Amino acid sequence: MLARYKPLLIVLGIVVLIQLLLSLGGWEFFFTQLIMSAYYSLVVIGLTLLMGYAGQISLGHAGFFAIGGYTSALLTTIDLSGLWDKGTLSLLSSLFITMEQKDPYGNIIYSFSPWVAFVVAILIAVGVAFLIGIPVLRLKGHYLAMATLGFGIIIQTVLLGTTALGAADGISNVPDFTLVPGIQITDRMADRVMNYYIAWFFVLLGLFLIINLLNSRVGRALRSIHGNEEAANSLGINTSRYKLYTFVLSAVLAAAGGVFLTHYLGSIGPSEAGVIKSVRYVAIVAVGGMDNLFGTLLMGNLLNFLSLRGYFGTFDEAVFGIILIGIMLFAPKGILRIKGIKYLSSFIREKLAVFKREKEK
Amino acid sequence: MAFAFKKKTMSMGIKFLFILLVAVLCLSMGSQEQTGGTVKIGAIFSITGGASFLGSPEEKTATMLVDEINAAGGINGVKIELIIKDSGGSPEKAKSFAKQLIEEDKVMAIIGPSTSGETMAIKSTCDENKTILVSCAAAETIVEPIAPYVFKTPQKDSYAAIAIFQTMNAMGIKKIGVVTSNAGFGMGGKDQLEKYAPDYGITIAIAEVYDKGATDLTSVLTKVKDKGVEAVVNWSIVPAQSIVAKNMKQLGMKVPLFQSHGFGNIKYVEAAGEAAEGIIFPCGRLLVADVLPDNNPQKALLMKYKKDYETKFKEDVSTFGGHAYDAVMLLVEAIKKAKSIDTAKVRDAIEKVSFVGTAGMFNFSPTEHNGLGMDSFEMLTVKNGKFVLFKK
Amino acid sequence: MESNIVLQYILSGITQGSIYAIVAIGFNIIYNTTGIINFAQGEFLVLGSMIAISLASFLPLALAVLIACLATTLVGAALELVFIRGLKKWSPVRVVTLFLLIFIIPFRSGLFDGFPFLANMVFCVLIAAPIAAGIEFLFKRFVKSTSNVLRMIIITIGISILMREVMLHVWDEKNRALPFFTGNEVSSIDIFGAMISPQVLWVLGVSAVIVVGLNLFFKFTLIGKAMLACSDNKTAASLCGINVKWMVTLSFMISAGIGALAGCVTSPLTQTQYNMGSTLAIKGFAVAVLGGLGNSTGAVVAGLMLGVLEAFAISIMPNAYIEAISIVILLVILFFKPSGLFGSAEASRLKEF
Fold this sequence. Notes:
The complex is a heterotrimer. By secondary structure, chain A is mainly alpha-helical. Chain A has helices at residues 6-25, 30-53, 61-77, 86-94, 114-136, 141-161, 192-214, 217-227, 229-234, 239-265, 275-288, 293-309, 316-330, 339-360, and strands at 98-102, 108-112, 171-172, 177-180, 183-185, 267-268. The relative contact order of chain C is 0.19. The model of chain C has no long low-confidence stretch (mean pLDDT 81). The chains are: A mainly alpha, B alpha/beta, C mainly alpha.
């Protein structure tokens, strides 16, 4: 039973190790990009579930990320004073439904609290995912790719065209997300280490959900769908229902990533919903090896980290284009399964095993 | 029973650990060193992506100007080290880069970002960490309300709107149609136009918003034409500016076309060709430097910038590059005044600085973090494919 | 609504629609011979007009457009040879193409400019040859020749990103435009009260020529018939002695060529920027699906319909949302009648995706 969660413990171990390494080495500034990459990897693991395990491509996942981020940004920055009187607002505040905060001019305004915004964002994502998923998942191949791409473009068009959502400028001044008193998602430098663990807590939670799902009936059904959908169907597996559940779950993970990252950064812009972003997620899943949860997790964090650090300079998009083509041509099963790396890792494993044996002696 | 990756688990974990460790180690090799006699200035421009028409000339100008200053021996002997980052127009990258510049490079100031959305995303970061931000974006929310460490160099949108309305009053125009793009610049302009129109007794008969990437605006303009307006105001950036002009001529609309100060690039005139003839727009003096009278205080500076830029990059100078020019000059002037490269002292000095820039005469004060007045705009028009001063 | 305004909407819709139709036809040609949707179709239009704009500064316009179309055709061929045929093992054609592509980089970038021309060439060859050989070795050693749709989709998406970024770095981010073919920016023709630019007539004329020309090509020439045969049944076609591989290459060349031509004709009206290809591609795909994937006559009708619909939609909704209309239509069609308005459901079920 515990074996199932062993990879989670290993990930946790690595996360802690990196934190210790960076803190002791005085490289704490890396946390900013590591935290951002971690939130993006919520989208990545969701998409891995959809693409790798259920075999359905989605070129619109940035749309779900943006739905989460924008919903939360809008609800936590909107001024509710016009809607209810002050008494009601402070009453709602004590129930944690609304939250008192200062606008840029220093006036006190009431907005929805981040938890309310989070729940609403997730509900909207679930609703949209169902609405889109039911017809879209009947499609296959190019049609599915184009339909999901189209969904992403619609979301971006709406964001760009709506003044209430800030049009091309997006929404800024999004408040911090107080998870429980004392623990909040914020980009303040003093709370960096805490936020690093918050981010990875959510990623591990996502992984936990996915691993459980894959080991349940749903997981077995998904594998049969990926193997041969017709055969699965003829065995009485309701393939469309399982595909839909997977789609919704991956949308929820993407939206959650959007909510958290928006609160962390304090702003969101329409570029988050762009086609380029969706394609980027697909590229990451492809590099990680499609049906390799931990491979995509690793590559997602690595590539996003490098990109956010600005190491690719003005070639940021080009790098992802080359990665897409290169991976699909030379290593369709992901970069971690290329022979060289496989060899290297098995070499290390052997050495470790020898070392262990020596020690036991 | 565990799922299929049970067997792979250990190997995956090791791969994960190994690659991540190598990556982190490689990245941490590049450590920073403090050198004496230099001041570090960061720059975040969207050199690629949708806003590259802003970021590209800004990056070129800033590099050119800093090289020039350093070649001349620096500011009172202090050399500038410019660290440029390409944000691609994404707020999340702007934020990531701003933090890198502040924490790792320990810059004194950040120039840019190019767009308002990106600037708003990093405004509080810079202010909280007491790093000067000189934005090259137009939105008024950047300096309104004032944040101690945040400044900007482009003219305020409202001045452009007021300049347009004053000209309309002089021409006796009462009823206008407004078309704007859905980009931040366009939406901001629409707000300003709608806000100030009543003050000047002008009615906006129709206000249309179009997609910033639209390639044919005939249908939008047909709607405007239908309302029988006396003038059209277009508030957008490329390419719509030229397309509006072309489509109006194609539709046979004879009313004058006003553009925003975003029209400031002779390339757009070329793109619109003959259709650009007669367009009236408010603009800084950079583009009409050669027609300015010799006693204009800006003339010498503008001519020099224009000549340097055009010989170096073989392309026409634009007001956007000018914003970066002014941003660098503002810091240079402030450092001279403060006689120090201490961030807090330079910040205080900025609020006392007055200098001649490409956009106009800058006068900064604790209550004015843009520093430009109404006189920074000149009404221009297009005649024979060239910008000339507009005479009422 | 006054009649001249209605006419104005219709004409601007038809102009826009004929561009969509040409992009859709480009999709169809490649889809018919390979079963692949080429996501980089929109980039062919941009590349064609970019090349033409650069050439037009020192060549007569007609010649510039002609050379640009030919060059884009070659790029189409090269892409197919390297990336699509790349899925097969060992190909001498691919080595040569790779070599030429890589050769251009040091040669154009002026790496060895100080040396005499011949030495310059030799150095470039010395750099390019081992790299090309190396990549070919990678292909030969590692490429898995199993091809599936997901993989092909991702490869063509990668190609489109790559083309866009190459165009950004070769040219720059600025908007450019070809000069008007006849008249200039302000000349307009009065058609029953609707004002249109003469360039609109060029767009419509060229689109019509492309559609008619392609029809004649597929019906009356041997190569055209051979290509049709491939789209019907590849195995049977190759049994008849048709070289299916080259037909695929040819289909990429044709769709790149007509894409470039369309890009050149529309450039004066719409201007050209490096990143406008993907919008064109999604609209072109919407039109292709609307008309029935693979059906070029359907594409023309669907293109014009969508163009006119978009133009009229402007009078009832904010222009900012217009972009979404074609996509909403695409989604609706995909959900309810994936075979398109004019395609038969039976035939589309037989096609592999």
